[in-house]
Every structure is written in C-alpha cells, then in structure tokens.
Amino acid sequence: VAEIAALVFDVFGTLFDWRTSIAREVRSLAPGVAGDAFADAWRRLYQPSLERVRSGERPFAKLDVLHRESLDRLLPEFGLGNLDPPERDRLNQAWHRLDPWPDVVEGLARLHSRFVLAPLSNGNVSLLIDLARHAGLQFDTVLSTELFQAYKPQPETYLGACRLLDRDPDSVLMVAAHADDLRAAATNGLQTAFVARPLEWGASASFEHPVDAPFTFSVGDLGELADRLGC
Amino acid sequence: VAEIAALVFDVFGTLFDWRTSIAREVRSLAPGVAGDAFADAWRRLYQPSLERVRSGERPFAKLDVLHRESLDRLLPEFGLGNLDPPERDRLNQAWHRLDPWPDVVEGLARLHSRFVLAPLSNGNVSLLIDLARHAGLQFDTVLSTELFQAYKPQPETYLGACRLLDRDPDSVLMVAAHADDLRAAATNGLQTAFVARPLEWGASASFEHPVDAPFTFSVGDLGELADRLGC
Question: pLDDT under 70 in chain B at which residues?
C-alpha cells in the first residue's frame, strides 16, 4: 500500500448532515411543512439532476442551479408554490449552511496536522467555501467537480483531483459514506475510507454496511480514521 | 463602489519573499554561490517562460515544470551544472517552501475573519497548497491559474476566479505588489489593492511607487489593508 499524502472528502452526508439542516430551514420558513419529508424529496431529485449533465442531455450547470430547479419542482407538491423568487433563493442557499456531523470539526483538525485535505464534492466551489466557513473547517483547497465541468462518479473528477494535487492516485485517500463513490474512486486507483453515517436518511431509515466492496479503511467516524492514520 | 466579498492575492513577491528564501536554499546546497544573484536570475526567467505558454508557442505546463526548465538553463551559468536530477528536483521545490513577509500571517488571519480569501497566482495548485501549509496561512480555496490552463495577466484567470467564487468582479479585490497584475485585474472589473514590497528585489534595488494607476487601495502591508477594510 502506497503512503497516503492527501485525503479528499465527499461532503453531503459524509461531512454534513444535510437532512436535519434542510428540514430545519424549511420548517422555519413554513412551520406546517413536513421538514424531513421535504429534505428527503429534495435530495432524491439530486442524482437525477446530475445524471442529465453526466449523460450529456444538458451542458454542465453548477449544483446551485440544479438545486434551484429541483426546488421549483418540489415546492408546489408541499403546498409552497407561493414562495417568491427571493424566498426560493434564500431557501436554496440552505445547502451553503448545513451543519457538520458532530465528529467532523475535531476529526478534520487532527487529520489536517498531517495530511493535505480537500473536499471532492459535486457541490460548486462557492457552496463548498461557504460550508467550510460555516462549520469552521480548514481545508487546503476546494476540489469541486465544477473545476472539471463533470460530476462524480465520472472518472475525470477523481483523476483531475489527483492531477491538481500532483499525486499518484494511490497516494490519495477518498473518504465517503457512499459505497458507489468509493467504488468509482478505487476503479481510478485511489485508496478508500468508508465512514458509516447510519443517520444520513434519518433514524427510521434502514442502513446496511456495504459488504461487497473492499475498502482500504472502514470506520465509524473521522476520529477513528485519525486514529487509524496515526494522527 | 460595490461591497467587497472576497480577496484574491498575488503570491510571489506579494505574500512571499521569494528572493531571501531561494538565495538561502541555493547557498545551503552550494555555499560558494552568490545566492541573491542566483535567485534574481531564476526569477528573471519567470516571465519569459510564462510568455511561451501565453503566446501559444507551447501548450500549458505547470509552473513547477517551467521553474525546473529555467533551473536547468541557469545551473551551468553558476558553476552548478554537476547537480544531479534529484538535487535539481529538491532545489526546484524551494518554491514550495518560501517564507512569507512578516505582516502576512497576522494580516491574512484578520482579513479571513470577514472575507473569503484565496491566492490567485501563477503557481500551480500543489505549490500554493504547500506554501500555505509551510507558512500557516488559511485560505478558503486555491485559485491557481492552472485551473484555467492560462497565466496572468490573461483575462480568463481573473474572470475564471470570479466565476468560481460566484461573485461579480467588482465585489472581488485583487491584492498585489505589481502594478501590471492590478491593471489587468482592473481591466476585467475587479477592485484593486496595491501593497508596497520595496524589498522584493533586495535592499539595493530601486523601488518606485506606481503613480499612473488608480488603485482602489494602496497600502504598506496587509495590516494596513485590514485596517482600511475594517477588520
């Protein structure tokens, strides 16, 4: 196994608890709305919206734009079709101020003492900057897939990140709570760390550890990852 | 004047004292060499090497590559033609571990409390990451011109930075010690801050404040800039 020089992180679900944050924001805007269901429904439109870019059906658009289009589709279904454009923009910006999982701030600080750290996320650059500032996270740079005009799991996102870091893929560790992201990273030569986030879709959703994929590391949180990496 | 949201910084000469650092590294490798003259000569090959990319004479190459080619040209002139490739690589990496000017660490920390900060430099991403880690600087992301496969003062570097930050150019402040960089930034709609670095080329080099360019701010160091911006 090659020596690890840099860690790149999936963001939504891996570092940030999007569901609780989005539910809270929509409830504060419209107290009667089922916030959790709204958050889940918004997030379920995420992969289909990316897929239209990945497939070439439409040109690249920033995730902020895709989130906003999904929101416009969703609002009438939740009886919120009367929100005006500035209110929609503000709600869309909720993705810029998500709260991190409880282990993230300290875990990243420990990892940063020894490794180069960057998000490798489908979030656009400005979104990822805002999230890191909101949570007080220190990254060395932002490796948004916007830089490559592509979306994970397209190969150019993983390989482009390694190229910018000037590192061979096997010296870069992809950290994520999603097996498909890690499988694509591994296919492109990166090392992988699975972080279990059983609450990503709420306490009542079923959660299963992926068993079919051999990851370099499999941990319960970033503190455990820091332990395993000797930080 | 629009409200400023983000500050982008030139790096070599503006934040980092390349001359003292490079001179020290070459002297430690070869005590008899005139370190200051070597540093100046290496830096004088910088713009011509960028110009071959900007003009289209050659495809884009990272600054690390250009620095290394310039070094190979230079070494025989200083009686160092016998350095082997690993020694040359190590010396080339000296650009990744420059020391900042004395006001930079505290100045950036103050500015970071209120503004998004990023280097906007011809240094490649990995070089800029290493410099920030070496000096203990906290940026929100790295806006290397490598992201745009171009070199300042090409317009796509300034405009690309604003696009990734999702900000209109007039809400982005370019900070540099070089009038030509600031003039190009202003031409592309950015606000500008000139920082005087009279020692960039050493105490015996002549230094003149640019008088023909109306910058948004003109300051003596980053502490003064933080004062002016109310940080």
Answer: 1, 212
